[in-house]
């Protein structure tokens, strides 16, 4: 099997590359490295089945030879990143999805789109099920990401319906683990970095907003299983264990044993107040898939990873 993974140098993408290589696939990574890092792939560069193409998938790409699977994971994905690269974010979700769908159609390959819980916006339904259409501000600061992924889902379904492409859509909820960038601006790298440096943890707003954090190996397992199904509508993947951001900060303070305090900062615009996946569709569809790693264990593994990065900085 030959599998193309766009965004393969990113956090989730690089975990997928490892998994597909371990399953015996030949893996071709396509990444322009605006938010991804070759460091995530360093240990794989001498692998005989691995290759890397530096390319912005918002521009068409020809790949010689057979391709069995196309996974489109390229996109800035943290709020700080997509605020910094709004146009690139809109282009990779729209033009990049069009280009990767075209590649899948040409090669008669399976296609899998990395979508997001952001398609639900600031949700009025809780927890979020796949049949909820969402509450997105199209012109807000998060609109560049939310709307590009909503468009990406729409064009993916159109390629399935009009061209019969074997498409899959995963809606990824907050995911964490080794290989996250310390400076990606997300809550977990921010808090862990601050805790390890002994600085106050920057809680935005009063910290009553909730998120539900999934360890990356659980996500990767779900994605791997989804690719082989005949199911074409979106599937939520995440861990429904919900926590307020304030409690999350306290957990990280306790786990790292830091003397850091909590500092309250302004809440960014359009920050969703709650987020928690309903994962019953995935549980039914994916052969008993369910998250295996609890937050305490996952956080401990992630803190170990960040300790090395903080020392290196
Ligand atoms: N957040 C925070 N402090 C930070 C970074 C984020 O309190 O230093 C909050 C943010 O306002 C949001 C939640 O943590 O409510 C998760 O933010 P993140 O950027 O990780 O991603 P999101 O889930 O909003 O896409």
The name of the CATH topology of the domain at 2-176 and 215-239 is Rossmann fold
Overall form: globular
CATH superfamily of the domain at 2-176 and 215-239: NAD(P)-binding Rossmann-like Domain
Mean pLDDT: 97
Number of helices: 9
Strand content: 15-25%
DSSP E strands, number: 13
Element-by-element helix/strand order: EHEEEHHEHEEHEEEHEEHEHH
| Text of the CATH class of the domain at 2-176 and 215-239 | Alpha Beta
> Which small-molecule ligands are present, each listed once?
uridine-5'-diphosphate
Keywords:
single chain, 313 residues, alpha/beta, Rossmann fold, two-stranded parallel ribbon
Give a written overview of the molecule.
This protein is of the alpha/beta class and 313 residues long. It has a domain at 2-176 and 215-239: Rossmann fold (3-Layer(aba) Sandwich). The protein has helices spanning 11-22, 79-84, 86-107, 143-163, 187-197, 216-227, 245-256, 280-285, 295-312, and strands spanning 2-6, 26-31, 50-54, 69-72, 110-116, 167-172, 175-176, 201-204, 210-212, 214-215, 234-237, 242-244, 262-265. Strands 3-2-1-4-5-6-11 form a seven-stranded parallel β-sheet, sandwiched between helices. Strands 7-10 form a two-stranded parallel ribbon. α4 (143-163) links the parallel β5 (110-116) and β6 (167-172). α3 (86-107) packs parallel to α4 and α5 (187-197) packs across α9. The mean pLDDT is 97. Residues 78-79, 174, 185-187, 190, 202-204, 209, 211, 245, 267-268, 271 line the site of uridine-5'-diphosphate (UDP). Uridine-5'-diphosphate is lined by residues 78-79, 174, 185-187, 190, 202-204, 209, 211, 245, 267-268, 271.
């Amino acid at each position: 099997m030959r599998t193309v993974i766009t965004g393969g140098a990113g956090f989730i993408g690089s975990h997928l590359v490892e998994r597909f290589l371990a399953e015996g696939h030949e893996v071709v990574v396509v990444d322009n490295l605006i938010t991804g890092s070759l460091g995530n792939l360093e240990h794989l560069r001498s692998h005989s089945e691995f290759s890397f193409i530096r390319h912005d998938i918002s521009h068409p790409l020809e790949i010689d030879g057979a391709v069995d699977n196309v996974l489109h994971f390229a996109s800035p994905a943290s709020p700080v990143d997509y605020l910094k690269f709004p146009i690139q974010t809109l282009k990779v979700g729209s033009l990049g999805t069009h280009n990767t769908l075209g590649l899948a159609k040409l090669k008669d390959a399976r296609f899998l789109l990395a979508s997001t819980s952001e398609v639900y916006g600031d949700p009025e339904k809780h927890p979020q099920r796949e049949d909820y259409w969402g509450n997105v501000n199209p012109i807000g600061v998060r609109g560049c990401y939310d709307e590009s992924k909503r468009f990406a889902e729409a064009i993916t379904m159109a390629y399935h319906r009009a061209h019969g492409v074997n498409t899959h859509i995963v809606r990824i909820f907050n995911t964490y683990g080794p290989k996250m960038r310390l400076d990606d601006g997300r809550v977990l790298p921010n808090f862990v970095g601050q805790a390890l440096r002994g600085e106050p943890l920057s809680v935005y707003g009063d910290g009553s907003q909730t998120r539900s954090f999934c360890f990356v190996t659980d996500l990767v397992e779900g994605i791997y299983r989804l690719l082989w199904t005949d199911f074409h509508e979106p599937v939520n993947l995440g861990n429904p264990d919900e926590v307020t951001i304030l409690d999350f900060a306290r957990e990280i303070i306790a786990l790292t044993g830091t003397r850091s305090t909590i500092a309250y900062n302004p809440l960014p615009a359009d920050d969703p107040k709650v987020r928690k996946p309903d994962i019953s569709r995935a549980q039914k569809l994916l052969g008993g898939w369910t998250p295996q790693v609890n937050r305490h264990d996952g956080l401990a593994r992630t803190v170990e990873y960040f300790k090395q990065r903080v020392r290196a900085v």
